[in-house]
Queue: 3 jobs
Job 1
Amino acid sequence: MELYPEHKEKLKMFCVTDQQLVCTIGSDGEKHKGHKFTPVKEAAALLRKKLEKFGQRIADDINATERLANTQMQGMANTVDKAQPLRTQVSRQFREMHHFLRRREDEIKNDLKHKELNDLEEMSDTLDTIETVMSESRVLEAMVASVLEITDSEKFIKSWTENNGDSGTFIQTQSQ
């Protein structure tokens, strides 16, 4: 068990205000005057419960994002399926017309192809964004899962608060 550097005492309390572990002497000192404290095990249990809920929300978000990605991919396939028959119809009609209309056929085909490519490019960009969000969510989910595997309360709190900077205020903001 780690000792509080200032008093060489065991870290038995968690200062919710400062988001740090302290000893019982430190919790009564001027540095932490008026602060809110919780025993380490209670703080760890609270953080664990909140992180489990947070992890579940991340998993739910990933599932929703995967559904969006599947819908987007289906939309892309539908766009490709719709574009091909249009090109065929335009070709058939313009083959029956004279030279002037053949030039027009090429113009219309080019317009359709550009629209298809633009639509596919936009959809592909959206899919890339969705996949980036999924990837970032999976990284966050893995980080939360890794922290949740820590059984020692002190190491558990330190791992989350030290490795997540402002995310350490998670206990404070989630408990209000």
Job 2
Amino acid sequence: MGAATMRLNQNTVLVGKKVVLVPYTSEHVPRYHEWMKSEELRHLTASEPLTLEQEYEMQRSWCEDEDKCTFIVLDAEKWQAQPHLPEESCMVGDVNLFLTDLEDPNLGEIEVMIAEPSCRGQGFGTEASLLMMAYGVKKLGLTKFEAKIGQENEPSIRMFQKLHFKQEVTLRLAVNEPEQKWILEQTNHMEEKPYRAGCSDNCPV
């Protein structure tokens, strides 16, 4: 899976009912940095504390990464109600796809974080995951998904089990024809739109 494939999403917006997925740009870094000051979030995402400058560097590397697809999750209601509102003020989390299994290029590891405590338990993570899975199936040709979650993170485990993942060593979903049909049915409301500016325009130099 080459760089051109993974950068497909730099000009893509995925519009759902509850959430909107937009590419991760430098505009989103300050809010993301504030989130990652939380010890709980760092523990759940196995992340190290970074300075703001390091966070900008990380965003730039994610933007150019050949094996990662990242979207920022926005609250759709806020985003649509106030179109001139900065995206940063609509942010609720992020969702990622990692394509790092060299032996199986059709496998994507999915990771979702709803960082805003007030936005948890409202189905934002579920829809963000479904939109990302539909994107992976339709645009990247993925046929299997897995989610690596700590045993103590019961809400995430329950969420992925609702999305038809089976718990083995990791939670994994094999996308056979019925599963692909189910994912696309669950996301038939999703609109794919061009993003206002690509990653290359927003990444700090």
Job 3
Amino acid sequence: MTIVDYKSFEQGISCISRYMKKCGPFDGLLGMSLGGFVAGALAGMQQTKKSILPTELKFVIIISGGIIRCQPLCKVYDHPIHCPSFHLIGELDTIFKSSGEDLAKKFVKPIIIVHPYGHCLPPLDNASTVSFVEFLQDIIKENVMIEIKEHSKSSLLIVAIAFCILVFFYFIFVWNF
């Protein structure tokens, strides 16, 4: 990740921003692999007040992502990132493991799950599932107390419930097969 076409990155972020305006509001981002790099960069851009997203990110979930190390994007990691974050890092990820660990350290209070798999969305064990659900519950509690607008509360709740349902069915599928 040392060579990135910054113009293409800007175009991609602009596309994400337009989608968020059109279909939102969205309270957080989930990114896997290169999407995890983008989610981490957007959280960092928000911290430096250079975000072009229509709303503030209230959380990010990063799966096998990492730090973008090229100019000018690497500057978004110069300050601690205060956005709540949940990181899934594969112990056997030969592609982005160390970069994912570096990214997690840039966040103030990251929740980090290191799983025994590679560059993938892994089946989570019970402790990891509990950590994930607690992360979502904390996001809901914090934002329900802060937010006044009813649409933000309901969209965050819908996202959190959708993630919990997804995790539930994922484990049922993995454990039954």
